[in-house]
Design goal:
Two copies of one chain form a homodimer. By secondary structure, chain A is an alpha+beta fold. Chain A contains 13 helices and 18 strands. The longest helix of chain A has 21 residues.
């Protein structure tokens, strides 16, 4: 039997173990600052697999002083990062397998059919917050490792499994692992891509604009200057900027997307009293960053747009729009479509599915931005689960996809890290 | 000496008494539900003047069940309405003098140079919340009465002085006084008109629009429908409606106003997260009502506009905009420019100032709406103080204007209610 056949067979017989593991992970609500108990389950599994464990609380000075640390969390006590290494024999390429353990809040429990943290299994799906984003993906990683270890396949390169905190809040967990020295020749992040390969990831930053008008009584509203009307002008200018930025993108993966790097106006607040002309408006939004640009150049594009408006607009000359960048940021990511890591995963995909994977650009940032931009590590985002159900009520993952992803990842590990020669012979001869 | 001369002289000698009275009134912060102590000062003054007092707590069933009771206040205990009558000898026209005792909140005390309720006298002005809106006007009324009473001028018609609560919240105090049976042949309300005559008053109602979009991740914002963008379309439609309504107005007093009956968008709130497409927007505003229309027809104009948008707009066909009318309402008011009450006040004005008054339409509703629409009483709004400083920090009134208004009102009382014949002869002979 070939490795492929053995991996397929092992997962066919044992893949369902992943369900129990995923249920236990979902049942620990690992919201921000509550990641500890779910990490303990991962730790237990990694020990069982015999991996070398590195468990630590992030937040040292090297992290906090890093220019790309965009994090408002101060307390990391009791909620560690975890890295578990399957050491290779040497002479092969290393691979990071990165998953985040934190989940977004569950929202209104009444919107859920079952308890948000039930881990209920129904119709071939596991339900609960984090099932798809991305505990299901993490289970695929652990199943892939378990398959390889159980089958006794020896690798040349190291496999570095990471279960990090803080992805949903900007990625400080993965940044900490990069700064701790974890590098590799490639990385796979099984975020919910619905089994597509995402070599490109859109980055993003949050902005806040403060627009100032002039108050007046609503009955003589012409004596004031409405911050709401000014805000509308600003929003229109931002839409023009969005159009200009997107028109100038020409990556093949962006050909079919209506707006590859959107500028989303997510929030507007203005006025306090129906009978008054509002004198201030706050606009908050998400600025999409192209994989082909830097965060700094994206920032400059937006600041230039606002500066031009401040220079050309009569009112804004007197009361300039203020811009702030606040909250979390997600670095964009970019890998050549024909990079060897893409080839390895594509080959594995074809072996399992009998057809090539869809290749797309992700509309959101991932921790891959830190791995590639700060760590210099080639990254492909590929995983089971779908974005449609992530962050929503009744989040679920299809069990079949989770196990299929495990198989493709196991083959990719073997293909990338390289099986030991004697190992090949020994096993292939069975 | 003529009445005019005597009134002028008396006020010249005694008008400064009004300062002390105004200071005491300003020093009692008669915010909503805290009107009692300021009313007690008015009561004391009315007793001193020998008026017949009617002091009562409003809120009986006839008020609460009235179709024009737009009030969310349930507790009127300890904060009474006050009506004090100077009974005439009979055979003359009666006159209501109406002032409200409630003041709007003082806002941030740090925005004030002195304490908001200091009653400080500086440079010929009395400072403090309510000085201009409208305790200063009320002092003009009381000074006018004191002048007439002190000079022993006997009147034919009744003078009905009213110090009401709730004007700033829609006028339940004045509505209660109408329902209690206080009617007259005319009324003067000394709101801050800056010594202009306002025979027309703009009414208003508050509306709330709920606009529904479709949520999506900001990175794929084209998969959602932004409630903010929809709200902008709605705002534009409302501006068209405003233009149409104002274009069709042709009252001479509106010729020079840029927007006689504005629709003010006072507040907008949409979205909760920069990275999400917002699925709901709430717009709140003030709908100006022309003196020449009814509240109902104004309401219909707005509802028709929204209904048309709901019928014609693809998205709103599926998710219609919802409209609510909420909070307080102010009825519009209208008096013929050549009504005899206008003539009386104009004559008095010319006698005091040597030139005719400016005549304008008020951009806001007053309790005059209740007096005229419900009570059928001709109303002119005329008073010292200016709207510019009302509702703002460092509110003040010019003492000279307050006393000048008292003189014009005193002459108007005598002119309207008619001095007794013997009284005329007796006094004019002095």
């Amino acid at each position: 039997m070939t490795h492929e056949q053995k991996i397929h067979q092992w997962l066919k017989q044992n893949g369902m173990r992943g369900i129990k593991l995923l249920q236990r992970l979902v049942q620990e609500p690992s919201r921000r600052e509550q990641e500890g108990k779910a990490q303990a389950i991962i730790l237990e599994k990694c020990r069982e697999l015999g991996l070398s464990i590195d468990l630590w609380e992030i937040g040292d000075d090297s992290l906090r002083n890093h220019p790309n640390f965009y994090c408002d969390r101060t307390d990391f006590k009791g909620n560690p990062n975890l890295v578990a290494v399957l050491k290779g024999a040497g002479g092969g390429k290393s691979l990071i397998l990165n998953g985040h353990i934190d989940v977004v809040p569950e929202g209104n429990p009444n919107d859920w059919e079952d308890d948000p943290f039930s881990g209920t299994v129904k119709d071939g799906k596991v339900y609960g917050r984090g099932a798809t984003d991305m505990k299901g993906g993490t289970v695929s990683l652990l199943l892939a490792l378990e398959t390889i270890i159980s089958l006794g396949i020896k690798l040349k390169g190291d496999v570095i499994f990471q279960s990090v905190i803080e992805e949903e809040s900007g990625g400080a967990g993965t940044l900490a692992s990069v700064l701790r020295g974890y590098h590799a020749d490639g990385a796979i992040i099984p975020e919910p891509t619905n089994m597509k390969l995402f070599p490109l990831q859109q980055g993003s930053m949050w902005f806040r604009l403060t627009v100032k008008g002039k108050s007046a009584h609503g009955g003589t509203r012409y004596e004031g200057v409405s911050a709401i009307e000014l805000a509308l002008e600003v929003v229109n200018q931002i839409k023009l900027l969005e159009q200009k930025r997107n028109d100038s993108l020409n990556h093949p993966l962006y050909e079919n997307l209506p707006i590859p790097i959107p500028i989303n106006i997510g929030k507007i607040e203005s006025g306090a009293w129906p009978s008054s002309v509002p004198d201030k408006a706050i606009i908050e939004g998400r600025f999409g960053i192209a994989p082909t640009e830097t965060m700094e150049s994206a920032q400059t594009a937006m600041e230039d747009c606002i500066a031009r408006l401040n220079a050309e607009h009569d009112w804004f000359q007197k009361k300039p729009i203020e811009i702030e960048w606040f909250g979390a940021r997600w670095l964009p990511g970019k890998l050549d479509l024909n990079h060897s890591l893409m080839e390895t995963i594509t080959d594995s995909f074809i072996k399992v599915k009998g057809e090539p994977p869809l290749v797309e650009a992700s509309p959101w940032g991932t921790d891959g931005g830190y791995l590639s931009n700060i760590g210099g590590i080639p990254v492909v985002v590929f995983g089971p689960g779908t974005t449609e159900v992530a962050h929503d009520a009744n989040e679920y993952i299809e069990i079949e996809k989770m196990i299929e992803a495990a198989e493709i990842i196991a083959l990719s590990i073997v293909g990338w890290c390289g099986p030991m020669r004697d190992n090949i012979h020994g096993k292939e001869a069975d």
